[in-house]
Amino acid sequence: MQLWAFRILDGLTLGGLLFVVASGFTLALGVMKIVNIAHGALYLLASYIAWSLFQHYGFVVAIAGAAFAAAFAGLAIQQTVLRRMYLQPLPQILATMGVALIIAEFGVIGWGGYPRVMSEPSWLSGATALPQSVFYPTYRLFIVGVAVVVALFLWGLLSKTRLGGLVRACVDDEEMARGMGVNVPRVYAGVFVLSSFLAGLAGGIGAPFLGAYQGAQFDILLLALIVVVVGGLGSIAGAFVASMVVGILDSVGKSLFPSLAYFTLFAPMIIILVLRPTGLRGRA
Amino acid sequence: MLTLIRAPGQARARRIRVGLTLSLLVAAVVAPPSLPPFLLTVVMLSLVYSILAMSLDILMGYTGMESLGQAAFFGIGAYTVGIVMTRHGAASWPWAVLLALGLGTSSAAVAGLLAVRLGGLFFLVMTLAFSQVLWGVSQSWDSMTGGYLGITNIPRPYRSLGSDLHFYYVALSIFVVVVFLMVRLVRSPFGLSLRGIRESESRMKTSGFNVWLHKYIVFVICGFFAAVGGVAYAFAIQFASPDVLSITTSFNAMLMVIIGGVGTLLGPVLGATGIVFLQNYVSGYINHWIILLGAIYIAAALFASKGVVGEVRKWWSRWTRRRIVRDEEALDSRTSWSVAALRPAGRPSVESTNDSQEAAALRITGLSKSFGMIRAVENVSITADVGARMAILGPNGAGKTTLFNLISGLYKPSSGDIALFGKSMARVPAHTRVRMGLARTYQVTNLYPTLTVLDNIRLGVLGTGASRYALHSSVARLGRVNERSRELLEVIGLWERRNMEVRHLSYGHQRQIEIIMALASEPKVLLLDEPAAGLSVAETRPMIDLIRSLDPSLTVLIIEHDMDVAFEVATEITVLHNGQLLAQGSRDEIRANSTVRDVYLGKAFA
Lengths: 284, 606
Hints:
The complex is a heterodimer.
Chain A: H1 2-32, H2 39-57, H3 59-80, H4 89-111, E1 127-130, E2 134-137, H5 138-160, H6 162-172, H7 174-179, H8 184-206, H9 216-231, H10 236-256, H11 261-275
Antiparallel strand pairs in A: 1-2
Helix pairs in contact in A: 1-5, 1-8, 1-9, 1-10, 2-3, 2-4, 2-8, 2-9, 3-8, 5-6, 6-8, 9-10, 10-11
Chain B: H1 2-5, H2 10-30, H3 37-63, H4 71-88, H5 93-115, H6 120-140, H7 142-145, H8 164-187, H9 189-199, H10 201-205, H11 211-237, H12 247-260, H13 266-285, H14 289-303, H15 307-319, H16 355-358, E1 362-371, E2 374-384, E3 389-393, H17 400-408, E4 415-420, E5 423-424, H18 430-435, E6 438-440, H19 453-462, H20 479-491, H21 507-519, E7 525-529, H22 537-548, E8 555-559, H23 563-569, E9 572-577, E10 580-586, H24 587-592, H25 594-601
Parallel strand pairs in B: 3-8, 3-9, 6-7, 7-8
Antiparallel strand pairs in B: 1-2, 1-4, 4-5, 9-10
Helix pairs in contact in B: 3-8, 3-11, 3-12, 3-13, 4-5, 4-11, 5-11, 8-9, 8-11, 9-11, 9-19, 12-13, 12-15, 19-20, 19-21
């Protein structure tokens, strides 16, 4: 019984981390129709940066530095490259692939080819007692907490603020929004920066959990893709549910069928797509 | 027939093309024994990746389906060969190859079921997710795939093929056969249908093509070709690792296509050769080749819209001083349309068939369509007898085009029924309705812009013909299709311009092609959506004449804003207002109807 509780909690931890990455990915996809292949690379870059900052400046600076560095990198990508290929999916995909390759290779140059795992901060290390005398690593609970905070923040931002209204207007009818005087390029730049920030935040808090390693750029991209396909393109709420489902399936699947872990992820994705081609919360 | 179809100016280009191909082939056969071994390996890899890139280009360049997971089928081919050959030895090669091609093709059949029905972004994401999952499996299924390290020392079929030089000729033969098959595919009626789908899916549906099935078939075919590439790869390199099905391989294939030239078969070969050479030679000289590759990706996204082949074509046409001739002619006022050609030969006229006597040509009962809260069409019933000429009138937003989209099957009705000659077709897909005898035109010109005039009409004829799935024959040699296309083009006097791209035709001519293309399917009921929209007063006359010269047994429904056209062409009139039926009757009844006058006609028509 306790073993299962651990597996579910592990799943929720991974799901929480996934949500932070995937919410950024689905935001760029839903608002700007950009399949950002470099999203995983931004995550990886942030993990490396967090690892370095943590050596001298402590946890909070490491996480904040990682997230803002990724946001800044996102701004640079958007302003130099993506702005020139507005609403053209294929060039955007190729260009972000190029960016992903370059970022990952800079990772090799700067941090070497082997994994860098950041330590947990002392105030989050150890275990916390949960009901039913289950003890679970505090840092992992912290990740779940961050995911919930991010979910609430995004929900509030998109549905309660003027800024969110502008974003939703651009999603619904970009041309009309433009006609009503919304500065669409600026909204797009802002959304892309937010999306990159979320990738960076995930990279920061994931650095002690998954570590920074070559290959993470595509591992994370794959998981974010599955989350977005299952949850529905562009849906934050769908991404939240799907992240948790994918996280739990991954953790349970890996312990039951260690060599077929990806099948256990893929099977539910197929089932959901057969039943609902646009995902759990997707729109046609 | 052949000389008639091909433009005289193309003969020279064709001779040059054949000459170049032959000399390249001779070089590919003669040169290798004198090449250093490493260069030979690189050439062999170029051939293998060319197959993968061409298979992707048939999807993205010809059909407009941009797949981000083509490496999945390539990788399945390579891994299957690797697994079977290392376990069962060299003698098992026929089984290894068969199983590899079978698995590659059938996994494309499965992935296609999931992905093909999705459009645009969903298709991109699904194909990417599919290949990424296989990549994940290849990494984690250690006992089968060897995990990260992959499968090494894959034996080749015979000891004599152990030398790379000998195997090179096998790879070259595979490449030549694949190119031959692909050229056949691209030139076949099925290949033409793919380009039609790229240009306009809705027009293809309403010309009688089962668009989903065509896309699905080509997806599976391209999966097969990619698997062939994977098999060649495994035997050539004798190694298979997760890298072969990775996102990097899928993307490199796409990069090859885009750099070389989208929508051609030569382009992917050039792109593949270029990237493979760079990868194998430049990576030896600089430390971080990946950064250069990344820069190439970004540069390709920014600058390479038509690729090498496109640039060469542009340069060639400038050099030979051939300019695109634009047709800016307005429609002439000639009235002597060769009416007879519009009546398909051999088809009995509709009156003489028995089953059509009881039933009306088109009967719509209680048809409704809502988009969310908006009721675009509400409880509309219309009956059109055989040979009727009915105009559908109504102000903007009355639901006229929605009605046509419902009849032609682009929209599903919320309720109500549509019957053609007594057979209900409300649940029948759009392309089947065309085969039941329905055809339509569009208010906003909906042709295949970058295809030639002749190919546009051929697609109209092919839609209801048995040869639309033919993979083996060349379109240029389909006697009946080409004769019929010529007849139809001669009716509007555009046969001389058959080799022009349709987008270069004048607007008036494009409007005529709309109608001729609908007639190409030999319909019994024809829906014309504002045929005179956007035409000048002088051009409207020949359009009216064209419509009036249609076969009297053909039932015609026409949406028209131009009252002169409507009252001249139609004998019966139906008026829609806010999605509902306002009035129905003869010309005079409608003129006399006071409600219609208030809502729509105004006093001038009283």
